[in-house]
Amino acid sequence: MKIIIAKSLLFTSLGIVLNFIFKSAAAKLIDKQELGLFFTAIDVFSLTLLLLVGFRSSMVVCYAKTKDDINITNIFRYFLFGIVFTSWLIVIPYLKHKMGVNIHYWYLVFLMLSMGLVAYLGNQVAMYRHYNIINKITLIEPSLVLGWFLIAYYGAGVRGYHALFISSIMGTLGVASYIFFARRTLSKEPVFRRIEMTDDMRKFLKNSIISTLEFGSSIIMIYLSIILIMHYYTLDDLANFQVVVKTIFVYMISLFVFPMFRFILPELAKLINSGKHHEIAKLKQDVYRFAIAVSIVFFLIAWLFAESLITQAFSEEYKQSYTMLLHLSPFFIFVMLNAYNISYIKASGKFWWAFFLRVSGSFIVLLSFYLLKQFSDSIIIVSLSLIWGYVGMFIVSFVLERRLRKAIELAR
């Protein structure tokens, strides 16, 4: 497990460097407001499709128990088709006519389809636990997006966010192609057939829906910040948050939080079922130590170097984003520890508890924002609201995880 996580950190770090180069180049070559609209459009698509990632945990748990990949995959396919079709009818017109993304209709259609294909194949490799493929995706995707952006901008002379949309479409199609061919030697594509709704499949469907709601709620915490900025602040503030603050924050989540769900959660499920409580305690201790170290380093780097690095990487226009990032950095520990607690809760089968936690976090973000807004109109209160959301969620998750762990140990 330590080797797998170490490889994940290495590949993710390299992927983050490439992604950072891409966003830095885009910030210097693309108009600031266009860039803000592009990343917001990507976020709207991602928010829609990331709901499918909620299936991942339940697919892993159910397949480990039943090995019934055919029924599991066919249930997932129905949900995927439904979400893509709904996005085609609702999300794309919203982007075109409400948000003002002035780009040809088919750019958005192909981006939606390519992202849906990656979500489908990505959940499959997670279900089969093809960890090497999962790790390589984190490096291949930003490499392809950056490469296609340079080809579109310098090779074909495409300007504005047209070059960004081309790079995203071609990049995600390239990732889908890689997953498809890499997986062929490890596992076969499950056949289409009528779903057999056994008790295990009913439980899988129930857990998938709950996990989808739970994961969607976790993403909403960050997107609430975007919605609040769009409603109460300027496009410059939106660009600062989208291009710099959210980018770096999501990089940190990709590097240190997503591995909890990819690797720690399956390991916890195995240890809980085996009754190995001593190993669980040791794993938790290691996670807490690691979270403290990461948070301290993140804060020190933000405090000492972030302002100059943001100016050099993104230009002087984005300098104001430094203060928002500085406020977020020391509290990243709560994001990591929440991920561990929720992994334990889900590994124990308590999907509803995890959903409750996510919803409570979103509620705290909104409550904090409107309370703080009574005293200040500063953009900083968006960061502070997000902080209080994670702190409040950690307090609740800590109590629930501790109570659940004691109950399981007593039951054994």
Description:
This protein is mainly α and 412 residues long. The chain has 2 domains: 196 residues, no CATH class; 193 residues, no CATH class. The protein contains 15 helices and no strands. Helix 5 runs parallel beside helix 7. The chain is globular. The model has no long low-confidence stretch (mean pLDDT 82).
What is the fold's blueprint, element by element?
Elements: H1 2-29, H2 32-49, H3 54-66, H4 69-97, H5 105-127, H6 131-155, H7 161-184, H8 199-232, H9 235-256, H10 258-274, H11 277-314, H12 321-328, H13 332-347, H14 351-372, H15 380-411
Helix pairs in contact: 1-6, 1-9, 2-4, 2-9, 3-4, 3-5, 3-8, 4-5, 5-7, 6-7, 8-9, 8-14, 8-15, 9-12, 10-13, 11-12, 11-13, 12-15, 13-15, 14-15
